[in-house]
Design brief:
- With about 200 residues, the chain is an alpha+beta fold.
- About 20% of the residues lie in helices and about 55% in strands.
- The chain is built from three helices and eleven strands.
- It has helices at about 5-15, 20-35, 40-45; strands at about 55-65, 65-80, 85-90, 95-100, 105-110, 110-115, 120-130, 135-145, 150-160, 165-175, 180-190.
- Strands 2-3-6-7-5-4 form a six-stranded antiparallel barrel.
């Protein structure tokens, strides 16, 4: 609807209700002040983040002193170059951790993840599963992998399955191989292999 049509509608309404000219002018100023500024709209559109790189079926290797420490795979990767550069894994990822002999120590997967490049942090979300060499499994909805500190942690609710027991708690922290970990607030332990 154009401004002229709006003014005509407002004028006919005001004329029928016998409201004075002052109100008519005030209303007209209000209508004109609500017009969209095309330059502002263009600036808003430019502010919407678009990926600079889109990759499919990605496999990355992380090394430490020339030895592979982790392998990351993902069906889709989006890279964003904004003030705080990040990589998004909208379809999830899988991370395999290796020891110095090249043997797999741990495995992690999630439905979604985001990696902040400057901080060297990956936030895994939704259906997060972490498994170590001993067959112990951790399940949660949110987990952070801090590459600089070589730690994996979360404040979310976690379930750890190990040696016939299910441990439920909050406040989990571990090394990247999930071989040494602590659970800050344990809610309970359930024995899974009890005979009935």
């Amino acid at each position: 609807m154009t401004t002229v049509v709006r003014l005509k509608i407002i004028y006919s309404f005001l004329k029928k209700t016998n409201i004075n000219t002052f109100i008519l002018l005030f209303t007209a100023m209000f209508v004109f002040s609500c017009q969209t500024n095309s330059q502002k709209m263009e600036a808003l559109v430019k502010d919407i983040e678009e990926p600079v790189v889109i990759s499919q079926d990605v496999e990355w290797f992380y090394t430490k002193n020339g030895i592979t420490s982790h392998r990351l795979t993902s069906p889709k990767v989006l890279r964003f170059e904004v003030e705080k550069e990040y990589i998004e894994f909208p379809l999830g990822l899988e991370v395999f951790s290796f020891n110095l002999l090249g043997e797999q120590e741990a495995f992690m997967k999630s439905d979604y993840a985001i990696q902040y490049l400057d901080d060297k942090i990956i936030e895994a979300k939704g259906g997060v599963l972490l498994e170590n060499l001993k067959g112990e499994k951790l399940e949660t909805e949110s987990l952070i992998w801090d590459e600089k500190r070589e730690q994996i942690f979360t404040e979310a609710l976690v379930k750890i399955t190990k040696q016939g027991q299910l441990i439920i708690g909050e406040g989990f922290e571990s090394n990247t191989s999930f071989s040494k970990y602590t659970l800050t607030n344990s809610r309970g332990i359930i024995n899974l292999d009890q005979e009935e």
